[in-house]
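Here is one chain, start to finish.
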Amino acid sequence: MTDNTTFLDNTQEQLKAIVQPFQKELKQQQRKSDFIQQCILLASKNDFLKLDEHLKTKLASDIIEDESLAKCAAIFDALREYASEKVDLYRLEFIDDLTRLCKEADLEITIDSNKFSVLKGITGEFDFATRTTTINKKALKSIDPRRIVTAIQQHKRLLYDSPYDPQKFIDSIFATYKDMLKQNNGNTGDKVPVQDFYIAHVILMQSKPFLLNMDKARFKGYTTDQFSVDLWRYYESGIGGTSDGYRLNLTGGRNKALWLLDTNGETKQMSSISFEK
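Its structure:
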């Protein structure tokens, strides 16, 4: 019985060794077949955006180098040239339409390749292949200029259209800072990790009813984007400091950091916050 078992085990291993390369080759050929079928589908839909990305992949190069599929080379080259020209034209029309619509909405947009910015604190990126626009890390499944402008306006309302008093803002920031120093037996001028500060500040913004019963419906949201833009608006106001004459200091760094706008309107990693006379 033992000899039979050994014999059967050996034959199984031998057959596996024979069939595995064959199966691997079948899988590779199937992938190439699926790729070509996808090209046919995209061409039938005139989906030049996805076709352009599709033909830039390594698998497209592998197919061209496959002797059994050598006829694909000329066809792929022609499709690639067609898709590239259509994408370039589409980008120009897209940028023109988006710029015009932003101007009509009284929004000044700056576009650099596939990235854009509108006001300080509102940035985005286009991904034509996936038909997705990302604005402040939030994905919009569209590259329709009208929908993009609507999304930008929503961000602007959240970040800029609420009542804002730079003096009240910096005084509230200073109050949170002093509260943290008191809890940790610190002194004015000590640096506080900005992530810890942000959490403490959001908590202090909440109403007493919320703190007694933390129902999410009562929670007052305050995103890091809002915090960053409020800091920028404070810098731009030129008021100089708190009502008590203290000046804000933000220190760059990576430890417990947040991405915030600095005095020049550039987004940088800030790791600590402090105040001094």
